[in-house]
Amino acid sequence: MSPTERQKMAAGEWYTCLDDELAALRETARGAVFEHNSLPPNERGKLGPKLRALMDAPSALVETPFHCTYGYNIKLGKDVFLNAGCTILDCAPVTIEEQALLGPYVQIYCAEHHMDPVKRSVEGLEIAKPVHIGKRAWIGGGAIILAGVTIGDGAVVGAGSIVTKDVAAGQVVVGNPARPTRIG
Q1: Considering the entire predicted model, what is its pTM?
Q2: Catalytic residue numbers, as ranges
Q3: Is 105 in a helix, a strand, or coil?
Q4: I need a labelling partner for 103 at 20 to 30 A (CA). Which of 94, 119, 129, 137 fits?
């Protein structure tokens, strides 16, 4: 029996996102995200019940608005903070370790689309690669983290940076593409 598109996605193989099972999972996540983004002001930051059921995030604070693709691929460690407008396209596992901070409008993209226009647009082929953000890392507002990137413990990503390669523990990177810099 051939693997399903979900199984191929989970295995890091090429899969088609134009699949009924994946569409149903995205619809479930959309409902959970809608509920979370509609919480009353006194409950903002806490995960809505449906999103909490999808994500592994026992003590994270996630400001609204928030968006994710599937939710079930996201693991947020203790005391993680995601500021308003964060988007996580979690076609692969996204792990954000304890006390990491993400500024407003940080975007994490796990999917890479096929370079062939027919395979990309007609067949919906993409491949997903995990993203890992270490303990006490700080990701500045508007930063974009691309598929397959690991950001080490205590690293800093400057606001607006586009991270295309791994960032070592304790390293500070800025720019497009993000490159190491020295502070002060």
Answers
A1: 0.95
A2: 113
A3: coil
A4: 129
